[in-house]
Amino acid sequence: MKVKSILVTQPKPESDKSPYFAIAKKFSVKIDFRPFIHVEGISAHDFRKSRINIPSFTSIILTSRHAADNFFRICKDMRVGKLDEFKYFCMSESTAYYLQKFMQYRKRRIFIGRQSIDDLIDVIKKHRKDKFLLPCSDIHKQEIPDTLAQHGIEFTKAVIYRTVCSDLSDLKDVNYDMLVFFSPSGITSLFKNFPKFKQNNTRIAAFGQTTCQAVLDAGLRLDVQAPVPEAPSMTMAIEQYLKKVNK
Question: Which domains does the chain have, with CATH numbers?
Answer without folding.
Answer: 5-36+166-245 (3.40.50.10090), 40-163 (3.40.50.10090)
